Amino acid sequence: MVTLTEEILSIVIPCYNEEEVIAETINRLLSVCDAGKGCNFELIFVDDGSRDRTRELLRTFAEKDSRIRVIGFARNFGHQIAVTAGIDAARGDAVVLIDADLQDPPEVIPDMISKWREGFDVVYGIRTERAGESRFKLATARTFYRVLNKLSDVPIPLDTGDFRLLSRAVADTLRAMPERDRFLRGMVSWAGFRQTALPYKRSGRFAGKSKYPLRKMLHFAIDGILSFSTKPLQMSIGLGMIAATIALIGIIYAIALRLFTNIWVEGWTALMIAVLFLGGAQLLCVGILGEYIGRIYNEMKKRPMYVTDEYIGFTQKGAVFSRSPERTEQ
Ligand code: UDP
Ligand code: MG
User: Do the beta carbons of residue 146 and residue 183 sit within 8 Å?
Assistant: First the structure.
């Protein structure tokens, strides 16, 4: 019989320029690990090409504590890819994803573990409160999740982030999904299994600035919608049809003026409107098509999803493209 103490729990922490918070994050995570819950823990930090002292600090901590493993990226690949690398390398019976900035309190992890032991495969944190976020971010996030749900083919729970626990089965499912434009919370919903919510209060960042500027946020939102829905394509057909109908009416009107009246020079206004409207609608549809085609191109190149230049706590050294690094046993 498997005793509880043999269970391994991996915690995946993506870090990008987090020198100000990393020590505190490690301390708080380690105290959760020390409190036990009958698990062996491993902390997998993924340094997403930080340009500050994050890597150095991680190295120092990893030397002191064998539970800490580090994957270093050769450049910044983005949050979702960093989390993916962590999941790829994790060997826990369950994997917890948590941000490095302590916005997601590590103290909630034991509650996630309890839910997992009750038999759930995904325990996702639902933010009941979000401290320290600008009103703009709150409003856009709220709208985004609602629009996404209207468009998406799979229901994605509202107001959740990537702070969640995944069972081994779900982690393996994610590893089997090769897409490059990753929107993990949607992919987890897509996977199915028994999922449950765990409400928690999201705090403000412990220190430092958000590493998600508006540009990255927008890209992330577009990824979310385009990876989980082909509705924008259908919408562009609808828009095209409306534009064509209006244009047709305009054409009939223009011909009628030309044939039956002698005031047809005045049709210029209608003509301009038709040209501008059609032009706009066409550009929009081409743009939507372009977004999808760009993504097809991206997938088709079949490049490795990320490039690593350092592994600590794994036997690999140097650049490794494999999505399953070999590890040193602890
Ligand atoms: N992050 C990352 N790569 C990036 C941007 C962010 O690994 O390119 C990490 C970051 O270090 C943090 C988490 O992703 O642990 C969430 O980022 P952040 O807190 O800046 O986003 P916000 O909470 O403001 O949305
Ligand atoms: Mg944050």
Answer: no
